Amino acid sequence: MDQDPDRLFPLFARLRGRPVLVVGGGVVAARKISPLIAAGARVRVVARALGEHVEALVSEARLEWIGREYEPGQLDEAWLVVVATSDRTLNARVAADAEARRLWANVVDDIELSSFQSPAVVDRAPLQVAISSGGAAPVLARQVREQIEVLLDEHVGPLASLLHEHRRLIRQRLPELPARRRFLESQREGPVGRRLAAGDRPGAIAALHQALSLAAARPAGMVSIVGAGPGDPGLVTLKALRRLQEADIILHDRLVPEAVLALARRDAERIETGKRAGQHFTPQEEIHRLMVHYAAQGLRVVRLKGGDPFVFGRGGEEIEHLREHDIDYEVIPGITAALACAAHAGIPLTHRDHAQSVRLLTAHCRDSLDTHDWAALAQERQTLAVYMGVSALADFSDQLIAHGRGPDTPCALIENGSRPDQRVVLTTLQHLPADAARFNVGSPALLVTGEVAALGDRLHWFGAKPLRHHPVHAVPAALASAA
Ligand code: SAH
């Protein structure tokens, strides 16, 4: 692309008060002259005869007719030359003289002779859109122009002027650039734009003042990415609660139960963006779009996620997107399922005697299982907290046993952890898939494997007693009976 010899350099030139020579005085010349006059150029015309349009401009003293015959000396003061006669030889002569003086020349309908071209323009002054195909595809350029004409309603120009006239005030009321940018961005579709579209300039000015006071009075729109915890409203942090009570919009996962949503401000609009294994209710891109859409309007958006937003919650991706769109954000952590389920099942994730480390992992499909380092996961005296694992239990236990974890290793499945309907199934690695089926464990459920899981038998305190079909021991059965 950078090698393309026909590629033009786009330029907007300040012509106010500067002489521009136009050679030719017919309709074509007239068409070229009006934008020059609009830009404030001092247009001087050389022509044997004038058409009625140019004639009228001369009589209104909006341009000067400086002669009938072209002479090179007429180029002396000019900054630009426009050549619009039907005499090709004359056109070529003027172009050559201009070239010799390094003066930009446009010869109408002659790309070869022109050193500059005038683009197709969508005029919403002070906003102007100039389109050029470099002469390669004038029809396409015209189509594009028509599309843009439709896209930019007539009031865009007056809106740009209005905002420009009020720029001091706007800067003063909204000194921070992101807030100011969001304010300016929202004006086109807002009441100011609507008043201008209706031709009501005083009304638009009043609306602008009102919108400014509103924007200055309230903090700029932002997104709080909030962890809702496992579902017990008592496990929502104070900070999360505050955000829920200030929220204009709540974008929440399906995992977040009504009991937590009930903490939010009554007027907040709730949008469910939930996903469950295999079923996608809202594509991630749509969630991204909604967050930006609402925050850009100055609204306070809470993106509410089950557990913690940074544990298998795609919080990172959402932040990337907000950064790209210059939207302010914060992250409020929540109690992740592993912590909540372990606590409510009476299973310490680490224990001096049984487990020195804990790993959080996910096992919801073949792909996620294939990427694990099974040898490392199969080591003793460590706890695995497995998210989204209910559908892949057979593969999971096969792999761990194949890599050397004892078949008697204790496991706990915690369904609806921390909620009134919590169920805990205690089992061993070898019986895990069969017991999950036997007790019909459903989503959401978390799997805890490792020596510590056996402690749930004795330490449980919340909800129903753990379910068990086989004996479960913290240490291998042989050693336990020997002791
Ligand atoms: N960000 C969340 C996890 C989202 S992945 C967090 O930090 O907790 C969803 C998985 O979390 C579920 O498939 C399940 O394995 C687990 N989970 C979430 N809430 C749960 C609950 N109350 N009880 C059991 N498991 C839960």
From TrEMBL:
<dbReference type="GO" id="GO:0043115">
    <property type="term" value="F:precorrin-2 dehydrogenase activity"/>
</dbReference>
<dbReference type="Pfam" id="PF00590">
    <property type="entry name" value="TP_methylase"/>
</dbReference>
<dbReference type="GO" id="GO:0032259">
    <property type="term" value="P:methylation"/>
</dbReference>
<feature type="domain" description="Siroheme synthase central">
    <location>
        <begin position="126"/>
        <end position="149"/>
    </location>
</feature>
<feature type="domain" description="Tetrapyrrole methylase">
    <location>
        <begin position="222"/>
        <end position="432"/>
    </location>
</feature>
<dbReference type="InterPro" id="IPR006366">
    <property type="entry name" value="CobA/CysG_C"/>
</dbReference>
<keyword id="KW-0808">Transferase</keyword>
<dbReference type="InterPro" id="IPR035996">
    <property type="entry name" value="4pyrrol_Methylase_sf"/>
</dbReference>
<keyword id="KW-0456">Lyase</keyword>
<keyword id="KW-0627">Porphyrin biosynthesis</keyword>
<dbReference type="Pfam" id="PF10414">
    <property type="entry name" value="CysG_dimeriser"/>
</dbReference>
<keyword id="KW-0949">S-adenosyl-L-methionine</keyword>
<dbReference type="InterPro" id="IPR019478">
    <property type="entry name" value="Sirohaem_synthase_dimer_dom"/>
</dbReference>
<feature type="domain" description="Sirohaem synthase dimerisation">
    <location>
        <begin position="155"/>
        <end position="212"/>
    </location>
</feature>
<keyword id="KW-0489">Methyltransferase</keyword>
<dbReference type="InterPro" id="IPR050161">
    <property type="entry name" value="Siro_Cobalamin_biosynth"/>
</dbReference>
<dbReference type="Pfam" id="PF13241">
    <property type="entry name" value="NAD_binding_7"/>
</dbReference>
<dbReference type="InterPro" id="IPR000878">
    <property type="entry name" value="4pyrrol_Mease"/>
</dbReference>
<comment type="similarity">
    <text>Belongs to the precorrin methyltransferase family.</text>
</comment>
<keyword id="KW-0511">Multifunctional enzyme</keyword>
<comment type="pathway">
    <text>Cofactor biosynthesis; adenosylcobalamin biosynthesis.</text>
</comment>
<dbReference type="Pfam" id="PF14824">
    <property type="entry name" value="Sirohm_synth_M"/>
</dbReference>
<dbReference type="InterPro" id="IPR037115">
    <property type="entry name" value="Sirohaem_synt_dimer_dom_sf"/>
</dbReference>
<dbReference type="GO" id="GO:0004851">
    <property type="term" value="F:uroporphyrin-III C-methyltransferase activity"/>
</dbReference>
<comment type="pathway">
    <text>Porphyrin-containing compound metabolism; siroheme biosynthesis; precorrin-2 from uroporphyrinogen III: step 1/1.</text>
</comment>
<dbReference type="InterPro" id="IPR014776">
    <property type="entry name" value="4pyrrole_Mease_sub2"/>
</dbReference>
<keyword id="KW-0560">Oxidoreductase</keyword>
<keyword id="KW-0169">Cobalamin biosynthesis</keyword>
<dbReference type="InterPro" id="IPR028281">
    <property type="entry name" value="Sirohaem_synthase_central"/>
</dbReference>
<dbReference type="InterPro" id="IPR003043">
    <property type="entry name" value="Uropor_MeTrfase_CS"/>
</dbReference>
<dbReference type="GO" id="GO:0051266">
    <property type="term" value="F:sirohydrochlorin ferrochelatase activity"/>
</dbReference>
<dbReference type="InterPro" id="IPR012409">
    <property type="entry name" value="Sirohaem_synth"/>
</dbReference>
<protein>
    <submittedName>
        <fullName>Siroheme synthase CysG</fullName>
        <ecNumber>1.3.1.76</ecNumber>
        <ecNumber>2.1.1.107</ecNumber>
        <ecNumber>4.99.1.4</ecNumber>
    </submittedName>
</protein>
<keyword id="KW-0520">NAD</keyword>
<dbReference type="InterPro" id="IPR006367">
    <property type="entry name" value="Sirohaem_synthase_N"/>
</dbReference>
<dbReference type="InterPro" id="IPR036291">
    <property type="entry name" value="NAD(P)-bd_dom_sf"/>
</dbReference>
<dbReference type="InterPro" id="IPR014777">
    <property type="entry name" value="4pyrrole_Mease_sub1"/>
</dbReference>
